[in-house]
From TrEMBL:
Covered range of the whole protein: 512 to 791 of 792
Protein name: EAL domain-containing protein
Domain EAL: 23-278
Highest taxon, organism lineage: Bacteria
């Protein structure tokens, strides 16, 4: 540590070295986590804003590390993407959430849907796992439209032939596509029409500002009516107050997600919710 200040070059290279060591450690831990089955999914309810009823879940990955504790996805997904481990992780998420959906649909006899985050890295460079996804999907005997993949808007920036081919293949197999974090990237509205997309998810930052003033409201209302004109359904994420929910509902927003309704739930808590809903 003493030698750190000797000269700038030395300082920076020491720092960079430490960062790359930390990154390497995380990568090794991720590899180990796959072997030790340290990943699991939580499920956050998405509700119909008119009835407040549960219609789908978003699957969200969690990592229970033996010493680091619970590591949030934002802390490891980027490292997984850089190291290529995202391919194995994404495969786990896809299969696990489909199995869960099929089980819940039959157990609770509900018309439930599931939304799954997919890394743009996987879309841009389809891996060996994905070749088997459609077979796996059809084995679960799920109706068309009951599974959606959430992709972030910035994938459109790097919109290549391969991405649009992938989206078409998903569509062929009855998988819907949701554009995640809508409004945060460089949206080229023309992409919305050109690509086959079924839902947009209005980013949390817009919902957060909703009660602030007329400008913020107008913006959200405009996004929703534009989406509807393009035959897209709208999901608002990060709804935390009834005021936000009411405003969005008055704009005709279709679906909502956020702490107001429920946090991401464990399998047990999700099942308790499903059980309570099926009584009605
Ligand atoms: P995202 O796809 O935008 O997911 C929504 C995030 O917002 C989740 O954080 C969720 O817990 C959080 N959230 C939900 N409702 C509220 C709310 O009312 N208020 C606030 N403040 N936050 C809310 P999480 O689970 O930490 O996930 C973070 C990001 O990590 C996700 O953002 C997604 O980009 C990525 N991610 C999560 N699971 C997966 C996965 O299985 N695969 C991939 N590739 N990425 C994932
Ligand atoms: Ca998402
Ligand atoms: Ca999002
Ligand atoms: Ca996000």
């Amino acid at each position: 540590a003493k030698s750190k200040g000797r000269n700038r070059w030395c300082f920076f290279s020491f720092d960079l070295h430490q960062k790359s060591v930390a990154r390497q450690n995380l990568t090794n831990d991720l590899r180990q986590a796959l072997l030790n089955k340290e990943f699991f999914l939580q499920y956050q309810p998405i509700v119909d804003l008119k009835t407040n009823r549960l219609v789908k879940f978003e699957a969200l990955i969690r990592w229970q590390h033996p010493t680091r504790g619970l590591v949030p996805p934002d802390a490891f997904i980027p490292v997984a993407e850089e190291s290529g481990l995202i391919s194995d992780i994404g495969d786990f998420v896809f299969k696990q959430s489909l199995l869960q959906l099929a089980k819940w649909r039959s157990q609770f006899s509900v018309d439930l849907m599931m939304s799954i985050n997919i890394s743009p890295y996987q879309l841009a460079a389809p891996d060996l796992h994905m070749v088997g996804w459609f077979d796996f999907l059809h084995k679960q005997d799920l109706p068309r439209g009951s599974v959606s993949l959430e992709i972030t808007e910035n994938i459109l920036m790097h919109h290549t032939e391969i991405v649009s081919e992938q989206l078409l293949a998903f569509r062929d197999h009855g998988i819907n596509v949701a554009l995640d974090d809508f409004g945060t990237g460089y949206s080229a509205l023309s992409y919305l029409n050109r690509l086959d997309i079924d839902y947009i998810k209005i980013d949390r930052s817009f919902v957060k500002d909703l009660a602030d003033g007329a400008m913020e409201k107008d913006l959200c209302e405009a996004i929703i009516s534009m989406a509807h004109k393009l035959n897209l359904k709208v999901i608002a994420e990060g709804i935390e107050t009834t005021e936000q929910a009411n405003i969005l509902q008055s704009f005709g927003c279709d679906l909502g997600q956020g702490y107001l309704f429920a946090k991401p739930l464990s399998v047990e808590d999700a099942e308790a919710l499903l059980a309570s809903q099926s009584i009605n």
